[in-house]
User: Fold DUF3473 domain-containing protein from Massilia phyllostachyos.
Amino acid sequence: MKLYEPAARPLPAPGERIRNAMTCDVEDYFQVSAFAPYIDRDSWPTRECRVEANMERILAIYERHGVKATFFTLGWIAERYPQMVKRIVAAGHELASHGYGHLRASDQTRAQFDNDIRSSKALLEDIGGQAVIGYRAPSFSIGHANLWALEALQEAGYRYSSSIYPIAHDHYGMPDAPRFAFYPHGPDGLLEVPVTTVNMLGRNLPAGGGGYFRLLPYALSRWMMQKVNREDRQPALFYFHPWELDPGQPRPAGLDAKSRFRHYVNIERMEGRLEQLARDFAWDRMDRIFLDQKQARQ
Assistant:
């Protein structure tokens, strides 16, 4: 069994504009992994939820610019805001799973993970009324130590995952993984689609969103994604969270300096940057970019 079987994709014609994958991890500010030491999970139901209002702003941006996207949605959120999930589907976006309660895959046993991915899939399908074939692990928490999770996803009926980030990071990352879509267990199995990176001086640098998108000048992020389109002839994969558009969100007390910086840096600029990003690139759903239509319907 070859661990890394590259995904064969037809190259776009010279001059053809590449469609990139726009994705959003639908969770609220208090569910962020970095806040886990400061916010007790049992307090979630009593916290002010702001995800629905933030999602309305995101959907409005996409509507204005004709963007279709994939929304990796927590079951915990979908259960409380089923009408929001239905609005995602009605607008022509793809509904995908982010697990139920934002538990890292690396913190679960195989049995726990199996239950999580199956129950969240069933819940989202029941609410959204469409097949859920994509999954993203919270905090990109699939790596060398738990590659069994990819087998579990395939057995649970998922067609693709976006759970391995080929960078070095203090909380996640698998820097020796392929930079672009690959089949971990051969072309008849699950497709893994990493978030976009650029390789410079032998090191993969993050180029596909998250806190880096807020930290770096917009022009640099745009240049990196354009470089992937132009030189690698590959679609970029971008991700962000609804809370990143919300400078007015409650701020938990006692956060360490690193967590505070990562979470809030340039958060007030994010909505404008997302609007610009929607104008500067062509975007589509993950299933339509990375899976053929037969696979997408399965």
Confidence is low (pLDDT under 50) at residues 293-298. The chain is about 35% helix and 15% strand. The CA atoms of residues 118 and 156 lie 6 Å apart. The two ends are 24 Å apart (CA to CA).
